[in-house]
Amino acid sequence: MKPAESAVLLDEQDFEEIDRLLESLGADDGLRLDGAQALLTALVVGPQPIGPEEWLPVILGGEPLGAPSPRLQRLLDLLLRLMNSIEHGLELHSYDPVFAEHDTDSGERTVDAGGWCEGFSLGVDLNAEIWELRMQEDRSLLDLLAPIVALGVDDGVFAEIRNPEMAPLSERERDLVVAQLASVLLDIRQYWQEHPPETSPPPGATLH
Q: Which of 117, 157, 123, 98 is nearest to 47 (CA)?
């Protein structure tokens, strides 16, 4: 592995430290590792950069940052590395979403995408006006988001843009969306790179 590459990637200990810091520094409704990764992912693939002074309070559940502390600085450093690793993973088509896992009463492990979808939705909300205007002007952007929207149906995420009659995904459909997630995210990032917010929608866009 190249030195620059190893500096970007996070290991299991880094992920565990991020989660611990989020739990101790954030509000009760603050995000955990899965949601934080997804929020940063939405910013990486979205229409324009947002600084940590805006996204870090959202991750922490709206808590004011207050005076800098070593633990808060450590969390910020790790989250910035996480953001870089997201960009790096997308470039290599190897984005690996972090989903929560729960034990069922029968002793099986189930994957819960709800926290990830909530975080992605909050990341979109940080550029809400740009996303909403473009989705009204160009149906193709909504179509690109459709797999992620479908992933959040079970948890009521994206209620404002999803079809209320959309049925929850089957286990096979969910696995397929997860397997294709890196490709979906790359398509969304490419859309905004080719059609940034200050430009008009692409030719042939459906106007409403």
A: 123
